Amino acid sequence: MKLGTKVIHYAQESESGTGAVVAPIFQTSTFEQIAPGENRGFDYTRTSNPTRSRLEEVLAGLEGVKHCAVYASGIAAENAILQAYLQPGDRIIIPPDVYGGTHRLLYRSWQDKGVEVVAVDYSSPGKLQDALTAAEAKLVWIESPTNPRLLVYDIEAIAKQAHDAGALVVVDNTFSTPIFQQPFTLGADIVIHSVTKYLAGHSDVIQGAVLAQDAAIFEPIKFLQNASGAVPSPFDCWLTLRGLKTLELRLARHAENAQRLAEAASSHPAVARVYYPGLPSHPGHEVAKKQSTGFGGVLSLELNASAEEVRQFVSSRKYFKLAESLGGVKSLICHPAKMTHAAIPAEKRAELGLADTLVRLAPGIETPEDLVADLLEGLNALSAAGRGAADSQSVERERPALVAAGV
Ligand SMILES: *Cc1c(COP(=O)(O)O)cnc(C)c1O
Question: What is the pTM (predicted TM-score) of this model?
Fold first, then answer.
């Protein structure tokens, strides 16, 4: 079964009692028992639920492994992995531009409990080797492509180095989904998803998933799903099952839109730089081609614009709604320095090469011509304002009252 068929048919037989072609929602918290301790496979929904089990089976099938546990959010899924594998004194290696919420969870919670968090630039293999040689690491955490600069890391090469040093490899596959990238075939031991994004796909669910092939690796994570209880509702699991059926179709359009927007922006004078792995000029293009079957649906642009112009640009698009998150059918735009990455101090953002004039686009599945026209209209307005020269330091640095979620 190919992936486009799997999203419809895998683990999704018609319901035996009625012939319903769509799985019912078991919106129940508990299950009547036949005799004390004797049940029909389910006893309490925190522990397991037929709708949730169905979703877990489908997601496992898409990533090509045996085991999956879903959680109430991507961050809850990450936390289960950390709780299962890290003790005080243990070390985890991450890329410097790891997802903002992962950054916060590690540095503001796990580091305080005595876990050592080491950020290493994976684009230079020597640096990872140094970190692995310096001290034993329990986990090596990979994201590819990253957010918001869409850096691409060689998963297979990193996994080999990590395994040689005895570490487990975790891949956050949120941006690529199993449609474009299959991390287990590249050496991952554990895959995590923010299901919230492309998998659910309609900006109406918050959910996460952890997947593994090895039963022993999965066991402590599965235990924590019930023991710490951050489980999604049956209704949300059902919504995700519905969203998943169009995953392959949606991803094809997301990627087509991203590619066309990246190409349209590349030659525009109001754009200083385009980040999209689908452009041959992107430093990760060749690695992305080697390890993925698509370049994903997110791109970022560094604008030649003042602070006020950036604000105008992101606030006045017709189809790109100003919001955090990505992966939904409706296009979103975000200003990382003020929104998703505002929690990272300005100096650190500069270190990461995260310009204050960077905007991130997460095209939905609208008709490409409409999105390109909307982008060009905004860019033309910037050029018309006569601001040719890059002034990337001009965005004010005041911190927002609320620390952004890091989505
Ligand atoms: C959104 C996101 C997360 C966190 O997922 P939530 O569902 O928002 O908790 C983790 N990793 C990546 C790459 C994400 O984009």
Answer: 0.93
